[in-house]
């Protein structure tokens, strides 16, 4: 039976829903939960098929967002990291009246490089998909290492991500492949052009998966949104720089 893991904690009077990235689970937020729990009601979610949300077959982006709707609080702030940024964006697009603001972290409306659009090379994602079936654990570990590469504490941060993965049930190969397929195929650039919500985009200057040039591209395309590039961060800024990261969240939400 499919069951979505959704845990609520915190004493604040605003709802903040945290959506993790590919291969991981809600424990990835452990660095920032203590820093935010007095300011928000935090909703920690394992995306369908990941962590404790077991029993799901691979889903499309729209189907994944649909699974979250029954428990989504009204007027919540959505914060999505990487793949979770696409899920949060999809929710904001389909249910704008239920969303107060959108925050994406180290995410892109289109992860794959296309024409002049910066992103991950299609063959890189295809290679990860092919390698999953032959060496599941090593492929996940390689992806986690890419997320922290270049930061001052890269090994320590990568170890923390690996511990998060191992702390909860592992997603199936099929679910992981489905997540990579979303990263490879989905493109929300045009859909988000007219998003009628406060929108903050946070990037890492050293991010090897979501190039920082995307921030400039979207600054021009989405002038109503705002962006911050964290200079010494890579793909997981809430792990490498939790204090700076949480301050950005509190400053943005205080103005919305």
TrEMBL record:
<dbReference type="Pfam" id="PF00561">
    <property type="entry name" value="Abhydrolase_1"/>
</dbReference>
<feature type="domain" description="AB hydrolase-1">
    <location>
        <begin position="16"/>
        <end position="242"/>
    </location>
</feature>
<dbReference type="InterPro" id="IPR010076">
    <property type="entry name" value="BioH"/>
</dbReference>
<dbReference type="InterPro" id="IPR050228">
    <property type="entry name" value="Carboxylesterase_BioH"/>
</dbReference>
<dbReference type="InterPro" id="IPR000073">
    <property type="entry name" value="AB_hydrolase_1"/>
</dbReference>
<keyword id="KW-0963">Cytoplasm</keyword>
<feature type="binding site">
    <location>
        <begin position="143"/>
        <end position="147"/>
    </location>
    <ligand>
        <name>substrate</name>
    </ligand>
</feature>
<feature type="active site" description="Nucleophile">
    <location>
        <position position="82"/>
    </location>
</feature>
<dbReference type="InterPro" id="IPR029058">
    <property type="entry name" value="AB_hydrolase_fold"/>
</dbReference>
<dbReference type="GO" id="GO:0090499">
    <property type="term" value="F:pimelyl-[acyl-carrier protein] methyl ester esterase activity"/>
</dbReference>
<comment type="subunit">
    <text>Monomer.</text>
</comment>
<comment type="function">
    <text>The physiological role of BioH is to remove the methyl group introduced by BioC when the pimeloyl moiety is complete. It allows to synthesize pimeloyl-ACP via the fatty acid synthetic pathway through the hydrolysis of the ester bonds of pimeloyl-ACP esters.</text>
</comment>
<protein>
    <recommendedName>
        <fullName>Pimeloyl-[acyl-carrier protein] methyl ester esterase</fullName>
        <ecNumber>3.1.1.85</ecNumber>
    </recommendedName>
</protein>
<comment type="pathway">
    <text>Cofactor biosynthesis; biotin biosynthesis.</text>
</comment>
<keyword id="KW-0093">Biotin biosynthesis</keyword>
<feature type="binding site">
    <location>
        <begin position="82"/>
        <end position="83"/>
    </location>
    <ligand>
        <name>substrate</name>
    </ligand>
</feature>
<feature type="binding site">
    <location>
        <position position="22"/>
    </location>
    <ligand>
        <name>substrate</name>
    </ligand>
</feature>
<feature type="active site">
    <location>
        <position position="207"/>
    </location>
</feature>
<keyword id="KW-0719">Serine esterase</keyword>
<comment type="similarity">
    <text>Belongs to the AB hydrolase superfamily. Carboxylesterase BioH family.</text>
</comment>
<feature type="active site">
    <location>
        <position position="235"/>
    </location>
</feature>
<keyword id="KW-0378">Hydrolase</keyword>
<feature type="binding site">
    <location>
        <position position="235"/>
    </location>
    <ligand>
        <name>substrate</name>
    </ligand>
</feature>
């Amino acid at each position: 039976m499919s069951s979505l893991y959704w845990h609520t904690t915190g004493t604040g009077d605003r709802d903040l829903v945290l959506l993790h990235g590919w291969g991981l689970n809600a424990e990835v937020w452990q660095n920032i939960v203590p820093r935010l729990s007095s300011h928000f009601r935090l909703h920690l979610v394992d995306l369908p098929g990941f962590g404790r949300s077991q029993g799901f077959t691979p889903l499309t982006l729209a189907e994944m967002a649909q699974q979250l709707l029954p428990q989504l609080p009204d007027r919540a702030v959505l914060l999505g990291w990487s793949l979770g940024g696409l899920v949060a964006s999809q929710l904001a697009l389909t249910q704008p009246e239920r969303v107060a603001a959108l925050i994406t972290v180290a995410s892109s409306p289109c992860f794959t490089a296309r024409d002049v659009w910066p992103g991950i090379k299609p063959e890189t994602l295809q290679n990860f998909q092919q390698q999953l079936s032959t060496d599941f654990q090593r492929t996940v570990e390689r992806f986690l290492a890419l997320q922290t590469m270049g930061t001052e504490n890269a090994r320590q941060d990568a170890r923390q991500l690996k511990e998060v993965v191992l702390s909860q049930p592992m997603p199936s190969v099929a679910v992981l492949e489905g997540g990579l397929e979303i990263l490879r195929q989905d493109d929300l650039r045009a859909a988000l052009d007219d998003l009628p919500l406060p929108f903050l985009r946070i990037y890492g200057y050293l991010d090897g998966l979501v190039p920082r040039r995307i921030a400039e591209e979207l600054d021009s395309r989405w002038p109503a949104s705002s962006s911050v590039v964290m200079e010494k961060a890579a793909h997981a800024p809430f792990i490498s720089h939790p204090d700076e990261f949480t301050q950005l969240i509190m400053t943005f939400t205080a103005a919305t």
